[in-house]
Amino acid sequence: MKLDRSEITGQPTPSVAPLSNLSTVLPMSPEGSTPPPKRASHQPTRFNRDLSWQVATNLLISFKYAATGISYAFQTQRNFRIHVVIGSVAIALGIFLQVGFVEISIITLTIGAVLTMELLNTALESVVDLTVQQSYHDLAKIAKDCAAGAVLISAIVAIAVAGCLLLPPLFTWVQSIL
Fold first, then answer.
1. Do the Cβ atoms of 175 and 102 come closer than 8 Å?
2. Catalytic: 103?
């Protein structure tokens, strides 16, 4: 049974028109009147999600939206790309050193946790930016700083886990070739 908002609150359901062109929103200059000049090397990322405000009607569309979010993070977030590269190196090193399946699985899970935190950080920053609309607010700063801190903690833990699992076999391998 699907309830309408008006049945719950007693107020009419507001009509919402889809936002058709969010992909061209540019950050504003410090004065807030005009977009900053485009850098020659930076091309704006465009995603066609005109109907993304709606609930996905099937599983395939849900996966498409998820893939679009991951793609957006990879294309626009430097730290996400750094985490992907470092994570790939850690997994490749584990395979090269022939560590066990459990160790590779643990490293993969910690890398997944870091990437998940980075995606959540990106989502939170986007929502905060949408809410404060190019103005400074102490609570916006706190929210962004806390989200960035969560990513940092997860990255430090991932490095510690990978170090504990990869350094002993790496030292053994180095000693064997010397």
1. no
2. no
